[in-house]
Amino acid sequence: MAALTTKKARILVFSTEKISDPAIDMAGLLKLHYPPSVYTISLPCSSSVKPRWIIHAFENGFDGVFIAADGSDCPYGESCTEKTAQIVRKTQEIMKAQQIEPAKLRMAAICSVCSEAFVKQMKSFHAYLLTQQTIAL
Amino acid sequence: MTTQPEKLNFDVLIIGGGIAGIEAAINIANNGFKVILAEKDLTIGGKMLLLSKVFPTLDCSACITTPKISEADRHPNITIFTNTEITSIEKQDATYFKANLVKHTRFVEEEDCTGCQLCEEACPVVVPDQYQYGMVGRKAAYIPFNIASPRVATIDIDNCILCGACEKACPTHCINFMQADKNYRLIVKSVIVATGFKLFDATKIQRYQYGTAKNIINAMQMERLLAPTRPYNHVIRPGDGRVPDKIAYVLCTGSRDFTVGNPICSQICCMYSLKQAQLLMGALPMADVTIYYISIRSFGKGFEEFYEQAKSMGINFVKGKIGNITEKENGNLILRYEDVASGRLKESEHDLVVLSVGVVPNEDASSLFGDAEWKQDAFHFPLQKDLLFNPSLSNINGIFMAGTTTGPMDIPDAILSAGAASMEAIQYIQKTAL
Amino acid sequence: MKQKIGVYICHCGGNISDYVDVEKVRQAVIDEPGVALVENTMFACADSNQKKMLDDIKQQQLDGVVVASCSPKLHQPTFQSVVERAGLNKYNYIHANIREQVSWPHSDDKAGATAKAIQLVKAAIAKVRLAESIEPMQIETEQAVLVVGAGIAGMKAAIALAKTGTQVYLIEREHFIGGRIAQWDVLCTTDETGKELVTRLYNEVKACKNIVLFTGAEMIENHGSKGNFKISIRIKPRYIQKHCNDGRLQKAIEVCPVEIEDEFNFNITKRKAIYHNFPSEYPHAAVIDMEHCTRCGECLKICDQINLDQEEERLELKVGSILVATGFDPYEPVEGEFGYQAFDNVVTLPQFKRLVANSEHKLYWKGKRVRNIGYIYCVGSRQTNGDNKYCSRYCCTSTIYAAIKAGEKIKDLNHFHFTRGIRTYGKQEVLYHEASLQGQLFFQSPDDDLPKVETKNSKTIIKVNDLLSLNHSIETEVDLVVLVTGMVPRHNNTVSEILKIPKGRDHFFNEIHMKLRPVETVIDGVSIAGCCQGPKNVVESINSALSAAIKCYSLVSQSHLQVEPIVAGVDEQLCEWCGLCADSCPFDAIHMSQTPAKQTALVNEAVCKGCGMCLPVCPTNAIQLNTYSDPEIESMIQTLASDL
After folding, report:
1. Cα B15 to the center of its chain, rounded Å
2. CATH number of B150's domain
């Protein structure tokens, strides 16, 4: 009911302290708008996201989860891109098994000045999640 | 209103807060020594902070610089003075130097400014923005750019009309038109000069029409057009805001050129031009990019591979020195050059020309040292007294040099040279302490 | 669980409060479990508020603190320091970012912004409720550095470190120090010879009492990590015990019946099985090359200091950090490459340098007078067909300088340079200009049409299609062909395997970040200097050596290393050792540990950087990262989701 009246989809973003956080902060600085139902939890590295945390988010009512990945900028080494992708693949398997639409988990590399990219991602992900709500209703 | 200078003691004074100065400061501070980093500009980070991406990794330059900047900023052993000039340095004896500094006023209480930019919004004055190399305007009350450090406002008093709008808008009341310059007297044990380089002023080559033809820019302006903190959201030519589709690079502008008094190779221009050309291919997939060169010098780690990559992306390479450039009525440019492949004089038309300007010495520090003569080499860079054995040593014992102070170099070489200067400074301090 | 949490919500002079109803936020969180106090403040970072926080923490005995204000990048350290000054551990402080991530990006939606701010503050409270005090870890450090390789880079680094008072062990695999520069003649651009530079460095090494130099010494094993490396080294015997008097030694060398090619002179001369490199090599002590010695005993008859049964020694060195400066090998052309080994007047640049160093007035090669020299560039570099795609950086300048210097020493030489575009970068450019002015000739071949070396009527001809003269085919008759060979990584360099230093596409050692961290490696405590990282000239090598030295010094300048306490920890009960965590760790911080009961993973806290890459791979969820544990993250998620 709430989702229908407020028309919002809640997104949990896992961001990273050294790379994507600065970009998300700068989006604010530049007054670039994105939906306020986007919440961020920052971690040291995008390859440290546990699948169970993502599942926990869906179980508690988040509509989507977005990993703002370090990509090739990761301060902990080149393997990060592949490892984050692996986490996404693994989690999407679990999501399928639990009948959660795998597309509700997204990932994109957000470098430390990729503010515009972040906002674009949030807007399109939010729009997508809203269409999912309508379908569900 | 003259006040007694405040007296301060440090182990090392570092002049210049570019990437070399920052690296040297962190190196020294990490070993328990107290450092003062003095920067003439409003922000530290130097030229690197203004670049788009770096070769050959194509890392975003600002992204990799900002962590170093915050490390220096946070370091308990590093004191950063921006907007500060050194007025003199005197060697006292084998153990210490006296230096005089003036920290120019910003007319803003730095500690209280939250960087909210409300003053900027309120200010009615618009002047060319030096951080965007004049391509757009800024206010008289302004923050240099979003990732400046410190990210605090300044009143450009030369252009301020004293309307008081900023004062009214500031929520923390940190604007103070009574704020005066502050003088400091420093006692330090060693000095590192990391004052960097200057870009060759392309107006000196009149036949290239830089500054008169509208659609000729220098490579630093192109960096800005491509950078994350760029002035426009697109690569456009300044003359009419059109998106260019036939871009030329003129390598060795002001380098390897006796006629402008700079016979040496600037060592970075080939690579930054290859990088910009690659970024342009990404930003403007339909555009045609041609690089006019004498010889491509992709000599560093991963550089040759980067050059090969540029060739495979379809960037055109023409071996030939540009003789002159003329502007057409529609703002396009005609490049006249000697085509080495055919041995003929040729002409080609481009709608944007980028001059790959070289590195020239920054001689600002040369007058600081009073009686102790600051010697230079044949190219007006400071003399490296013992080049092979101790490359960072100047001709004055206890004064070391880091980064492009001593000659053209790329970022990793500047980092290495900063490491050398900091290691030498630490040894010098410890030796004199004995 | 925290009982007395203090929460401060910042207006930021309107930057937050213009868009977020801060009073509403205060009301919304005041009844959260554990919260003892909620204050709104105009500027949380102002001195007055910091003082108030300090007083509140002390007077009300707060056990956790949250400030909701600007980005933690700006003021988290400020507030951490406030709680520390009040006597709380800084990990009991949690920051909520309601400016950059709330009021500013959502300035278009005040209700939405306020709702988000409430959730973020609640989540911060949820996290601080579970927060625990963690003390920074201290690891005791061996205040000594091991420098591997006594070329110019290794020696320079060793001297610099020693001058700071650090104990230095300098090990060199060869019996003589000086590396490649000892073999080089005049160096650009100071006219100092390689021998002179090496002499200056060696004299300083000897003058530093805290440098222990081992020659003939090779690293064979490593146990340990940053702060505490335990390195085993093997020292090859010289088979000559003490000093053999010079006259007798000379005689011993004379009687030695074995004659082999002298590697020091790149095989252009011969030496005996008992030998020294050159009359004043360092250390000044001869060696018997046991690989070639026939144990005939002739030398024993002359010098009683010779002992053919001397045994190798093993030592263990304890150091806090390691500086690797193992250098490069000159590229060895394959047979037939530009006539190498096919024609007897084709030499490499290092051989040419030795030849000129050992010549006076006139140049002879294999008994024949040399007047015309053809230099073929980029041999072993910039290969279109081979593996070495990179440019070797030093060779253009070095060759031009060698030609100029050879010309000064030997008057009647003509120089022909067959290049692929001269790369005398920086100030070195003037040498190119000088050589051109002297009448040295430069040709440039296309990348896909390299020069050819042929013989015609017992004359050696270099054929090139010259880009600089309209692709005309040019034939030049030369007496000597010099192949300008590039740099390749040292062969059989076992150090990288022992220390696990990664290599790049070019097979040189890889730094952690190409631009900003050029001497550090992913292996904490191990730095790389000189040409083992990639081709460099002398100045660049010295700079990199000193850079690596200061990085090593930072690790050993104090007796204890402070290590960030945010590290991974393994729950032994849950762990079923499968090794996935160890595989995922980019820093080699996780190893198997055998307890009486079972095998489990063990995190080396000194090496762990707290990236958390091991967390998601564990099949039994046995790894937690400090301050990012499941309870902390999951309670934040739950709280953030609770705004229905």
Report:
1. 14
2. 3.30.70.20
Q: Give the tens place of pLDDT for each residue, C377-429.
A: 999 999 988 899 999 999 999 999 999 999 999 999 999 999 999 999 999 99
- What pTM did the predictor assign? 0.87
Confidence at residue B228, expressed as pLDDT on a 0 to 100 scale: 75
Q: Strands C217-225 and C228-235: what pairing? A: antiparallel
Q: Do both C454 and C384 map to the same domain? A: yes
Is there a contact between C515 and B305 if contact means CB atoms under 8 Å apart? Answer: no
Which residues of chain C have a CB within 8 Å of the CB of A41? 123, 633, 636-637, 640
Amino acid C278: pLDDT:
66
User: Is B208 in the same domain as B331?
Assistant: yes
* Whole-complex ipTM: 0.95
Note whether B387 and B331 are same-domain residues. Answer: no
Q: Is C322 left (phi over 0), alpha (psi -120 to 50) or beta?
A: beta
Q: Confirm or reject contact between C115 and chain A (CB < 8 A).
A: yes
Residues C477 and C339 in one domain: yes
Task: Look at A111 and B60 and tell me if their CB atoms are within 8 Å.
Answer: yes
Q: Which domain holds residue C256?
A: 246-302
| Contacting residues of B for A18, CB less than 8 Å apart | 67
CB contact, 8 Å: A90 with chain C?
A: yes
Distances (CA, A) of B246 to B93, B210, B250, B272: 60, 18, 13, 18
> Same domain, yes or no, for C168 and C22?
no
| Closest Cβ–Cβ partner in A18, A73, A113 for B228 | A113
Tens digit of each residue's pLDDT (9 = 90 or more) over C581-616: 999 998 889 999 998 889 999 999 888 999 999 999
Q: Collect all residues of chain A within an 8 Å Cβ-Cβ radius of residue B62.
A: 112-113
Residues B83 and B219 in one domain: no
For residue A4, the model assigns a pLDDT of 45
Instruction: Give whole-number Cα distances, C109 to A36, B317, C99, C106, C566, in Å.
Output: 8, 52, 14, 5, 37
What is the rounded CA–CA span in Å between residue B197 and residue B363? 9
On chain C, the residues whose CB falls within 8 A of the CB of A80 are: 613
- How much of chain A, in percent, has pLDDT values that exceed 70? 93
Nearest to B256 by CA among C43, C431, C10: C431
Spans of chain B below 70 pLDDT: 1-2, 434
Chain C partners of A44 at a C-beta cutoff of 8 Å?
A: 566, 610-612, 625, 628
How does DSSP classify residue C100?
I
Strand extents, DSSP E, B268-417: 288-293, 316-319, 322-327, 333-339, 344-350, 352-357, 359-361, 399-401
Instruction: Say how far residue B268 (Cα) sits from the centre of its chain.
Output: 13
Q: Mutating which of A12, A34, A41 best tests the C interface, going by the most C Cβ atoms within 10 A?
A: A41
φ, ψ of residue B7 in degrees (nearest 5):
-100, 135
CA nearest to C566 within chain A:
A44
Give yes or no for C122 touching A (CB within 8 A): no
| CA pair distance C376, C398, nearest whole angstrom | 13
Of C95, C100, C102, the residue nearest C125 (C-alpha): C95
Q: Looking at the domain assignment, is residue C444 inside a domain? A: yes
Please check whether residues B223 and B310 belong to one and the same domain: yes
SS3 category, C330: strand
Measure CB to CB from residue C105 to each of A10, A27, A80 and give the nearest one: A27
For residue C279, what pLDDT is reported?
A: 58
Sequence-separated contacts (24+) of C336-340 with Cβ below 8 Å: C337/C379, C337/C483, C338/C376, C338/C379, C338/C450, C338/C451, C338/C452, C338/C453, C338/C481, C338/C483, C339/C453, C339/C454, C339/C460, C339/C481, C340/C483
Q: What is the pLDDT of residue A6?
A: 54
Mean pLDDT of chain C: 93
Tokens 């398997």 found at: A93
CB contact under 8 A, A44 and C612: yes
Residue A1 is predicted with a pLDDT of 39
d(CA C372, CA C417): 11
